[in-house]
Amino acid sequence: MSSLTEKDRPIVQLLLSTGTCPRCILRFCRVGSQMLYRHPHEDLMKDLQEFLKSSQEKEDTVCLDVADPPCKRIRLEHGEEGADELNYNGAIPQLPSAGDGNSATESPALKVCNVCLGILQEFCEADFVKKVCQKVNSADYQFTSFVFSVSLPPQLSVRERAAWLGVKQQMRNLGLPLAKDDIIQLKEAYKWIIHPQLSEELGVPADGKSLFEVSVVFAHPETDEECHFLATACPDCFKPAKNKQSVFTRMAVIKALEKIKEVDFLKHFPCPPSSPKNLCDALEIQCNNGAIFVAGRYNKYSRNLPQTPWIIDGERKLESSVEELISEHLMAEFKADSFNFSSSGREDVDVRTLGNGRPFAIELVNPRRIHFTAEEMRKLQQAINDSSDKIQVRDLQLVTRSAIGRMKEGEEEKTKTYSALIWTDKAIQREDIAFLDDIKELKLDQKTPLRVLHRRPLAVRCRLIHTMKSEYIDEHHFRLHLKTQAGTYIKEFVHGDFGRTKPNIGSLLNRTADILELDVESVDVDWPPTLAD
């Protein structure tokens, strides 16, 4: 095994003798060759045995020719005992020689690794890879690449620390430093092995930036038992949390390992670690596609339709909403788990949205289908429009997450145009309202309206009415066209909201005014891009 050198021999011999698998031994020997980890477990074991045997023969030759100094193996076995050499019950285990027939290195039986708990053994085999791929294929996702993630049992960090302390101790005896950061991480080694197999079986490449994630969650029945000493030594690190079955989470264990003193760790956990009683379990194999975003503009023609489901105290007030009329078609076509609806502002249940419509975006969570042609999107838009006479959508298209930011910018920075049908208690003539047309950039102070105070904080917001144009109807009715700053409460500007909006149409006309109908005529946000019919 050309990747190993003579200074690795004590590491190989120590870890093999205590039940460590060949791939974990390569990790502790800092072997960075990805191809080497992909070799079959049996071949790696034979290679390590041959490495020890060849090293032993060379050393025996040196020992015959040179009486002084003693060989490294002898120095390792008969070194001075000290505080840094604490192990198991305070003694260094006798290391079997490569030629000893009773050595663990000669045993053909596959034992569960005392460091990785079988992750780099059974779970690297073709049968497990096929099991993962069967799960992926049965989930019926569209994907052109994948990213693989793995969740490991928390006590693997404990066992790796124990193995590192044991190895560090031996290397220190030889005057060779070993930093924990030098060790190849278990997750990294596992992905080196599993990625090519998954790629071949699924027929697509592994890509760290892929939106399609295949994840495996490993668990082990002895987690609490093996981590319990950390809770005694570092109780502040382990606090009960909602939706957590155990306090021994990966992050809590890592935090405790950072705090516990080395001497305390050595007192409570064998270094190197002892052989486990059980193999890891692959608790969950999950698939998840990154969210897809669909944007467009909607018109609302009903005065009895809320933008989002109207539910009060668990009781639905109206049977549908703009959100539901659009999303039910998208959910079905994209085969998503759920969705999140957002828009550039919102209108009340009794307000229509006309003109070019209001920009909206829908985040489709974990969609199975992600590829749609422009023609397919047009058909989907038509299906939405054919399903109801209460709404219509246009410019339906796929967008990126970052592009949605342009829609949200318009909520406060852009302008909106409205048409309001207004009633007055006292009779009016055309000349009584004509002056409204001359008012420009009218500043309002709007205290949070009473009707939304239950869901919005109390505050005074400064808003602008840019322009107004009046249209006389009769002695008690006129229509007012307004261009305003986004976020202006139009109903309150008309009736005053018991003096909470100043000035208002009532105060300007010196009479009581109320609003009978309100339409949004335009939302001046240049997004999403207009599509050709």
Automatic annotation (TrEMBL):
GO terms for cellular component: mitochondrion; nucleus. Its EC number is 5.4.99.25. Residues 293-524 form the Pus10-like C-terminal domain. One of its GO terms (molecular function) is metal ion binding. Residues 113-287 form the Pus10 N-terminal eukaryotes domain. It comes from the Eukaryota. It is found in: Cytoplasm; Mitochondrion; Nucleus. It catalyses: uridine(55) in tRNA = pseudouridine(55) in tRNA; uridine(54) in tRNA = pseudouridine(54) in tRNA. The keyword Isomerase applies. The keyword Disulfide bond does not apply. Keywords: Coiled coil, Cytoplasm, Isomerase, Metal-binding, Mitochondrion, Nucleus, tRNA processing, Zinc. One of its GO terms (biological process) is tRNA pseudouridine synthesis. It holds the Pfam family Pus10_C. Belongs to the pseudouridine synthase Pus10 family. NCBIfam families: pseudo_Pus10arc. This is tRNA pseudouridine synthase Pus10.
